[in-house]
Amino acid sequence: MSKLAVSGLKAYYFTERGPLKAVDGVNLELADRESIGIVGESGSGKSSLGTALMHSMQAPGKVVEGSILLDGVDLNNMTPSEFSRKIRWKKMAMVFQGAMNALDPVYTVESQLLEILKEHGYSGDTEEKIKNALDSVGLDASVAKKYPHELSGGMKQRIVIAMAILMEPDLLIADEPTTALDVIMQKKIIELLKSLRDERKMNIVLITHDLALVSLIADKIGIMYAGQLVEVGAAGDIYKTPKHPYTKDLIKAIPRLHSTDKKIHFIPGRPPSLINITDGCRFYDRCSYAMDICKKTVPEFPTASGYVRCWLYDPNIQKEKGE
For domain 4-91+169-231, is the CATH number 3.30.720.120? Predict the structure, then answer.
């Protein structure tokens, strides 16, 4: 049984102009102890996917269709109170984007960690539990007595991660956990997530726009564009033999220190509006391989380690081209 299985997930924001389809038919599967990086441009729906998985979408957003199976249990069939009692923090936790600013400035770190333990009826030694959580993210126990304003950005980020793992969840969703940190602290946060993954045998969903960063932690990668996962596969396959034109363009745009190619590569155009979007491929207007059939629908073809949503991999089209 898969640890996480997402099928046909749709999560929309209902606006005066119509539904904004931030997550539109996402399929995703994670094996036990497997980690994935969700990568794409700003506005591609990455964060909305994370909040949809976590049942944390704010109005006017809501999940409208699809299933989210965690250990075979469909989370979308749970009431909000049932999800909060049985799943949030205990089975699944999330480090939200901009989490460094999420700490309450008038309470100490200890008070905020105690609130989580109290909410879930923890009956053990709370002082020891908090000490272990801080230690696991590389912080001294004395930090528990401090207020958020007394901590550096990197320390606050680690506090938020400590909160997320306090109840020892199986799945951790980290949404841009290195935002606003310097490169040295970014490396430390990623190394921290790697150690948590290995030591606690956690599944991690890392949401980011940085493909290079994902390579340090992810077993597989999902490329997201305009509300859809256009390609999913093993990390090595995505980097070495990308399939979807968007994936190829993203990888081409990564600066390479020792490359002889000094040209800066970028993807022309911009993503489409997610309101009143067409049924065809959403990358059509920016794709150098676009065909007439791409305007009609978006297929899904299997690859060696996942799938790709592109007509270039239709066996019939490949046969016509002699591939």
Answer: no
